[in-house]
Amino acid sequence: MSYTPEMRESIKKVEATRPARLGKPFPRMAPEEKQELLERFHPDYRPEGFREIRVGPNKGEKAMKELVDILEGRSHLTSDMLDLDRIDYDTDVLIIGGGGAGASAALLARENGAKVILVTKLRFGDANTMMAQGGIQAADKPNDSPIIHYLDVMGGGGFANDPDLVEALVMDAPLVIQWLESLGVMFDKEPDGTMFTIHGGGTSRKRMHSAGDYTGASIMRALRDEVLSYPEDITIMEFAPAIELLMDEKGQVAGAVLENLETGEHLVVRAKCTIIATGDTGRLHYQGFATTNHYGATGDGLVLAYRVGAKLIHQDTYQFHPTGAAYPEQIVGQLVTAKVRGLGAQVVNADGEQFVYHLETRDAEAAAIIRECTERGKGVETPSGMRGVWLDSPMIDIIHGPGTIEGRLPAMVRQFKRFGIDITVDPILVYPTAHYQNGGIAIEPDGSVKGVPNLYAAGAVTGGVHGRNRLMGNSLLEITVFGRRAGRAAALRAKEVRLGKLTLAHVDDWHRQLEEAGIGTNIVSPILLPDYTRKVR
Ligand SMILES: Cc1cc2nc3c(=O)[nH]c(=O)nc-3n(C[C@H](O)[C@H](O)[C@H](O)COP(=O)(O)OP(=O)(O)OC[C@H]3O[C@@H](n4cnc5c(N)ncnc54)[C@H](O)[C@@H]3O)c2cc1C
Known about the structure:
Layout: H1 5-21, H2 31-41, E1 50-52, E2 62-64, H3 65-71, E3 89-96, H4 100-111, E4 116-119, H5 128-131, E5 136-137, H6 146-156, H7 163-183, E6 197-198, E7 208-209, H8 215-228, E8 234-237, E9 242-248, E10 253-259, E11 266-276, H9 300-307, E12 312-313, E13 318-325, H10 339-342, E14 347-348, H11 362-373, E15 380-381, E16 387-391, H12 395-400, H13 404-408, H14 410-417, E17 428-437, E18 440-442, E19 455-457, E20 462-463, H15 474-494, E21 502-503, H16 505-516
């Protein structure tokens, strides 16, 4: 399935304007212009997409409706459903989530003397980490420094970021790259052996490290292999999602209840410390957007933490990646990595006109694309009625030399070739797609959850690091930096913890709070998988 004749007509216009666009920089937006654009076109600013949270630590604040629905959901359990004197597993550190944050935490918890159980909803490595393409940031070049990285992160996040978390992020970054390389991640190198780095949206230095466009797969493979090499200290349980956290009578978090996805059986895991690393919420499909996320990204960790009193930060802001595939239909919403723009591809409308600087921050780039396809009516229509704009990928080989696209973006080339589209010759049709929950559980720099004893969190499930907008390459960095920090802190804390009798009284209390707030919901959360995965045609 190649492009339709109507699309081909538009591509001719893109080709006609290409020579004039090459080497002619499009002006970046001024801050006021950007703010106005965001307020008019970014989904974060659509009041009809939001609702007030009526119960729990963020009561009175707003979030996307789909997130509020699951935060205000009922538990799978009530306290009388389980005999908590029957403990199935006992451990120092329980890690919930088998992506990059969970795996990093497991390694550092073990290194600091803990026995670890890592439980995950699907298979170990079925995670957004595995799908990450573009790269990971770290200021490790002579013309760069953690301070410049810090300023970029703060600027990208609208200066709403938690400064202590950003400091931890940028200061650990060079070390983390060395650690990943020592575990076997094959970063792209220059002929002289130094790291190959490029720009990402919002970076003022070239600090994006990559492994082709399989960066996440390369990182996840290395971390997973390392975890699997310590079976005596780290036990992996797959297809065993956590459905509720356990507390003890002293008010400390004390493990979790799991559900065996095959048998439906409940398992009680008692743990001195618990780390939530459950990732993102893309599969909630905010405002009906398609998503880049894997099927397990249903915000479970936010629900679990919220019910034991964890406060969420920036839960009202979500990142829509500007370049999701808009065609062909089979891959709508899947990511077209920001590295395509990082290598020089411009974003142009149906008439081949550039309308936005191609390396604006993601929020502004996405809003500009939505404006082009709606108010300005300059989008390209697909047979299913969707609209998108062109990402002019053939420019990359013109700028950097033939073979660059094949060499630097092999996954992208293959993804489109399956549908008869050659991105070295033709541009790619794109539209924003739900990508990343900017906010999440509020943590301290050591990964401990603010105000909840013995609970830690790391990775995409947390908030504060990225403020109100994450820059490309800072999530792979965040999951390793804070996964490591949480693993270490939890292992050290576990040496001091004395647990009391286990209880699920907080679940009954939660149900009481729902009732008092007049919330008669029939949503049971965490939802574990999106509804459509359960429907049989
Ligand atoms: C397509 C794509 C491309 C990306 N590209 C980049 C990039 O180039 N650079 C970058 O920095 N970032 C990128 N990101 C973002 C980044 O990859 C993720 O934010 C990051 O990897 C998240 O890691 P994590 O460990 O927090 O979550 P994940 O990797 O998603 O892992 C979460 C794990 O928790 C499990 N889980 C969920 N609920 C439960 C439960 N109830 N019980 C037990 N387990 C549970 C999941 O099954 C999964 O195994 C990309 C994301 C996507 C989707």
